Predict the structure.
Amino acid sequence: MTVAMRAGPSQDEIRRQNLGALLRYVHVRGATTRAELTTALGLNRSTIGALTADLAGAGLVSEGTPKETGRAGRPSLVVRPESARVYAYAYSIEVDRLRAARVGLGGEVLDRRELERPRNLVAGDAAPLLADAVREMHRAVPPDSICVGAGVAVCGMVRREDGLVRLSPTTGWVDEPIGAALAAELGVDVPITVGNVADVAAFAEHARGVAAGCDNVIYLYGDVGVGAGIIAGGRRLTGHGGYSGEVGHMVVVRDGVLCDCGRRGCWETEIGEHGLLRAAGRSDARGREALLALFDAADRGDARAQTAVRQAGDWLGFGVANLVNIFNPEMVIFGGTMRDLYLAAAAQVRSRLNSNGLPACLEHVRLRTPKLGDDAALIGAAELAFERLLADPLDVG
Amino acid sequence: MTVAMRAGPSQDEIRRQNLGALLRYVHVRGATTRAELTTALGLNRSTIGALTADLAGAGLVSEGTPKETGRAGRPSLVVRPESARVYAYAYSIEVDRLRAARVGLGGEVLDRRELERPRNLVAGDAAPLLADAVREMHRAVPPDSICVGAGVAVCGMVRREDGLVRLSPTTGWVDEPIGAALAAELGVDVPITVGNVADVAAFAEHARGVAAGCDNVIYLYGDVGVGAGIIAGGRRLTGHGGYSGEVGHMVVVRDGVLCDCGRRGCWETEIGEHGLLRAAGRSDARGREALLALFDAADRGDARAQTAVRQAGDWLGFGVANLVNIFNPEMVIFGGTMRDLYLAAAAQVRSRLNSNGLPACLEHVRLRTPKLGDDAALIGAAELAFERLLADPLDVG
């Protein structure tokens, strides 16, 4: 209601909106002819020309002749994002590793670093490690480049208004201002936006991955815990404080197994790392390697491992059915360890989903694995920074 | 992504948007001074004057001097919605009754009819009954009135693209084109928009009820079944086909009680009409009267009724906690029979919600009953029709 009650935009706002729309188009689709931009954006040729000139003047796009098309006639000029020159830094703080990357406008990972993360590494110790990685990458950046900001993906609940990590049961963080810590460590004043890993991965897959063009998507991400990034009506679902998507703490077994969050019977106690390893009689093992070893054992015919994987697959389908009945999505994406589990137990997942889902909610839903793979977290974190640029291109350049 | 990639609007679109914004403002807030409109919409005085003149010319608003304010100086003119002249018809098809109303611009119910509905009344028989009620009301409509359309609220799953009622387990309807049936029965060509009762009630409470100003809301509606209307980020959540919000079919007890939908352990088997009456040893009873008798018995100290109500209240809190963790809403509204259950077992609802909800998701959530009461379905159905008017005011008038 709030949005619709706004009056129409001013001329300045329209120009910003047009600049953002053109830049977003080439950011998402890559090099595009002026002719296609004219059609796609519904603007006339002279407006497209003026907008392109403004963006080129700010160093955000360049224009040139297209590659040989084999067609006769004068070719339409091609507008390209300045992917090598305009970039954002992206950080991903995961259960078992820290990653940093430099991502160009257009979504290409230009450079990256990865560090092992000892579990229970406190936030105060994570920031310097990531800052070191970024400083190292920064030395290789061409001198006339433009850094538009930085984004961080964290496996935890992130407050929308300021990016505070409220709670990350899997890393033990409580109320950690990781964005501010990184900014202080780097001694820079570029804005650093923080988001939940499932949310930003969903954002990336929706912008340029398997869910491109889909307006209603659930991206299920698993590590020790399980969370979802949700796209509803083409927009990210954030909830009031930024905490929506905590589907791993949907209780599926009343008085079930104790969860890291202190409650009992949460969905992630059945499909998360601990639950899978417990069911397979491997409670002492930890980490993604242990999980992959379990899937491998199931694949090689180990009966106990197979039973554990099938049972977890059934629980995965059980929870997905609930979410499909609640959200009526057109796609469910399985990322992180949920990808491994889904691939190992697809028959069980589908069978339970089909028996628990309502027919109308099931009829258009597709189950998919990520197109961007593990890079979704990094690319999504960078998208958080690019969003600021796209909202007002000439202000950031 | 789709929306943001659009270019800025044309001058025509801006004018339509401004007309819609002004009309929506007085539709939601009632009579408003030109001065307040200028501030609220961020437009200058002459633009407000021109927009008002256009809307007045179409008979949608009128202008006049305000009531005595006691303040000195020339008073700002007041813009009023033409509530008695501009109206929509609203229908509500419920488990136990059929309702029809004439709702004025501004949301006031101008006239209404109510009929008992025998359970299992087929759609083909519901349409003529409702059409009769509307014809009767129509005879009393002033001759220079403007009907902008009609909306229908149905307890069932409604396909977004055409309003087909796909499934209504509580009425037994399958693939019923109720909108078309009503239009044929009435022999009119006004557009008839169909929506799920929980969705339209949520819409009404969000526009002009207890959730005004809230961007993230869950409206839980119960009769025999349970469904939710969800507002996320200020917008209605519809899902891909229009079927989102089927929270009553979130399975909470694996291999639980058989549900009307054919599955087992759905949430509504514990908190819906049948579950409540079953738990109280009243399985033979049916209907809202039977349910109210049960709550009344609990209130008067009947031990078995009290146990049933407390247990259902605990299950209500259980499911709400899951939804709060998934959506992070700022408000949960209990409508229909959920209102009765919530009021009868508020302590159990809160206790279970507090123990199963994540602290960050709980910290801003308020539990409320509807402000518009049972009228929410009628007002929400009318809002479906008004939405068409507000999207392009001068096209409908």
Remarks:
- Chain A touches chain B through 75 residues (CB under 8 Å).
- The longest helix of chain A spans residues 303-327.
- The CA atoms of residues 125 and 181 of chain A lie 10 Å apart.
- Chain A has 15 helices and 16 strands.
